[in-house]
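F.,

This is the one I mentioned.
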């Protein structure tokens, strides 16, 4: 069994309040959950309104599948004009 985890730091361009940040992040998280069979949550930087950190977990019996899934998620985020990827950390166990 392969367990993959990704920690992605995002910069948000448009929010001017925490409420706007939550709205954008909720949409981004739902988009990831809808397109991929992974668990996603905001994991830190909750009180900052222009930066966020999300955690993603994926379980599979194939490390290539986990790696491909994370790459597709990163591509999805890169195509979203509301966010910019600042940092990505991926671990596999």
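My design for it:
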């Amino acid at each position: 069994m392969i367990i993959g985890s990704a920690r992605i730091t995002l910069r948000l361009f448009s929010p001017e309040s925490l409420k706007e940040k939550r709205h954008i992040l909720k949409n981004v998280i739902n988009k990831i959950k809808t397109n991929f069979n992974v668990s996603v949550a905001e994991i830190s930087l909750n009180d900052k309104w222009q930066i966020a950190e999300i955690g993603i977990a994926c379980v599979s019996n194939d490390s290539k599948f986990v790696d491909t899934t994370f790459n597709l998620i990163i591509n999805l985020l890169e195509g979203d004009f509301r966010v910019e990827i600042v940092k990505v950390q991926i671990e596999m166990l």
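The mean pLDDT is 92.

Talk soon.
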